Amino acid sequence: MNPILVAILLGLLQGILEWIPVSSEGGVALASTVATGVSPAAATRLALFLHAGTAVAATAYYRTEVRTILRSIRELSRRPFADETADLSFIVIATAATAVTGLPAYLVLDAAVSNLEGGLFLALVGGLLVVTGLLQRFAAALSLGEREIPDGVDAVLVGVLQGLAILPGVSRSGTTVSALLLRGHEGESSLRLSFLLSIPAALAANVLVLVDDGVPAIDPLPAVVALAVSAVVGYLAVDALVRLVRQVPFWAVCTVFGGLGVVGGLLVAL
Hints:
Blueprint: H1 3-17, H2 24-36, H3 40-49, H4 51-61, H5 63-71, H6 73-76, H7 86-113, H8 118-141, H9 152-164, H10 172-182, H11 187-213, H12 220-244, H13 250-269
Helix pairs in contact: 1-2, 1-12, 2-3, 3-7, 3-11, 4-11, 4-12, 7-9, 7-11, 8-10, 8-13, 9-10, 10-11
């Protein structure tokens, strides 16, 4: 396939899948493996690299919240998790927890997917998507209490889950939003916190990949095209999702697509 067309396709996938409980990393990695023939390891690193585009989209969409958070930095040390510093406290602690779990997970991931090919890689992604879908269904059924602002427990729990979501097939947005729902945050607030938290995590993952391997799998020009497409499509997608958050049963999408991924992967492997 033409490299620019591949870049546009991967940018579209990243821009859409990042915000719903379907792993953007797994989807982009699978698509790049099929389209370019690269190894699962290289495809996964490319998928992590493209998160920078959706980080730009989240920053643009939540630009008012980002400015408010930055203005609250001076108050952070004196009043953590007060009304005006709760979002910043949540992001700082959750990002630290993500680093503690995400870096070891990335190192394990890099070694593990290097030994997976074709159907086994697809089956792994499908199985983890099923888990993500069931987690989303569980969260929707057993949401606990009502919370208006995040606290330290929210930050540590969500940060750890976000770090583990570096594994292919595990949806970052699905797991983090599910955890926030279980902790008693309402739907739109859970999305807002999850998407704001994605900004430093995505940029950190991008830096990690660049330092480790440089721009992976595709040439610089297609990489820029993929990033630009993922940013524009990501902005439009997050706007649509926020509008429809109370109407769309995302857990069912995860479970169905995950099940198909497992079946298809096993068929290929056999």
